[in-house]
Design goal:
9 helices, elongated, alpha/beta, about 20% strand, 2 domains, Cobalt-precorrin-4 Transmethylase, domain 1, about 270 residues, five-stranded parallel β-sheet, about 25% helix, six-stranded mixed β-sheet, homodimer, Methyltransferase, Cobalt-precorrin-4 Transmethylase, Domain 2
Chain lengths: ~270, ~270
């Protein structure tokens, strides 16, 4: 046990495979006394903290789960005992996931906090599809939004569509029909759209389609959470884009894939 | 030299410190025959590819630099010789930086392409400030946009402001006065704003201010490229926020920092 002043590391576990952890994350895990493990993080991550006490604090949307206030108390209590607490969060800790509240609690307690960045699943989803999130032929940026209304309220889909940025929508699978309908009011029906479930993990699955078929195709193919929904012309640059999408952008001789393309990770 | 079929890895070097590379990136570098090095990547990264031939292909905005078509030819030529080419890009390869064009060229040549994600500087900037990009009290997402007009045209600042997402603006330092003015037409003058130069690197510097003072404060304090500009209420959650910002959000007894807060990395 460490008898110095404790500290808390907010550690980004990335999208799944341990290979996608940073060197800095691996070092922090090796030095941890206590690991608080989010249930969207790969559970094998605890092998990198063999000496640490591991506490699972899963908080999946809609399920019975560890209340946020309890997680915050745990972090504070162990760190005030002088321990190095590593709070493991899926993706990047600073994109969704309530890091803001946790940082405020820890600062109010006078505790040192270290933040270790990681790969957010929207980036892993783009890698899975083999596309840039911001192909300059199509857009000047990308917007990451959550459709988890309890946490953040309903995004302004009209405003988001008007930006012409690629949209990376997190926590949207339960409302994919409503999201697609809202976007269809502002974007062309044939706007390329994709779903990547478990992006960057060994169970990764991906689907490429168009906005007006997005909900039916994703639900029909059995896609569920956790998944990232990508919408925008940049997504249509994927080599896996269905033939009608490749024709739309003027390519000849592409692979004739079916309109609904579902691919499992190798 | 590898006599099998070659391949190309688009490798994300992250924002600067080698500690922020992923394990997957380190493995790819160790296996590289040829490394094509972007000049926004930390040059020390070549120590991780000791056996590779290193070619510097910097392409800084506005400077004399290696043309994109030449870089694409180099990648293709070496890979077609059977070599493992690692194309190192700063940040995440799939956010800005022309990965889309490179992927298309490599696929047309029938080459295998691997993408290794990394930490984009907007995430490192948020870590530097100690804020969530998407504090749920303030927003439902974050938009990453480039202000590099030659590459992507002018973003629709009105539409971006209307999304109420946090804005992470890349390549904007040369036009920071115009960007701030455009946003001021749609956002309150006291909207928190920050600049983080060399985010995630040893030369990191950060500035916290408000939108109507953003350009004057950043230029007055000598901030330049490469830097990320962050705009939005989530940014004001930083413990380093100036006293007037802490008063604005109703906190008492905060540190009385000057309105212009410039902090160098330790």
């Amino acid at each position: 046990m460490n008898t110095d002043t404790g500290k808390v590391t907010l550690l980004s576990a990335g999208p799944g495979e341990l290979d996608l952890l940073t060197l800095k994350a691996v070092k922090a895990l090796a030095a941890a006394d206590v690991v608080l493990l989010d249930d969207l993080a790969n559970p094998d991550i605890v092998t990198l903290a063999p000496q640490a006490r591991v506490i699972r604090v899963g908080k999946r949307g809609g399920c019975r789960s560890t209340p946020q206030a309890f997680i915050e108390r745990l972090m504070r209590r162990y760190a005030l005992k002088g321990l190095h607490v590593v709070r493991v969060k899926g993706g990047d800790a600073l994109l969704f996931g309530r890091a803001g509240e946790e940082l405020a609690v820890l600062r109010d307690a006078g505790l040192a906090v270290e933040i270790v960045n990681g790969i957010s699943s929207g980036f892993a989803a783009a890698a899975a599809l083999g596309v840039s999130l911001t192909h300059r032929r199509h857009c000047h940026g990308v917007s990451f939004v959550t459709a988890h209304t309890e946490d953040h309220g309903e995004p302004d889909w009209a405003a988001l569509a008007a930006t012409r940025t690629t949209l990376a929508i997190y926590m949207g699978m339960r409302r994919i029909d409503g999201i697609a309908a809202a976007l269809l009011a502002h974007l062309p029906a044939d706007t390329p759209a994709a779903v990547v479930q478990w992006a960057g993990g060994i169970d990764e699955r991906r689907l490429l389609t168009r906005l007006d078929r997005l909900a039916a195709d994703a639900l029909g193919a059995g896609f569920g959470s956790p998944a990232v929904i990508l919408v925008g012309d940049a997504v249509g640059e994927s080599a896996e884009a269905p033939c009608w999408e490749r024709e739309r952008r003027g390519e000849q001789g592409g692979k004739m894939l079916p309109a609904l393309s579902v691919v499992r990770a190798a």
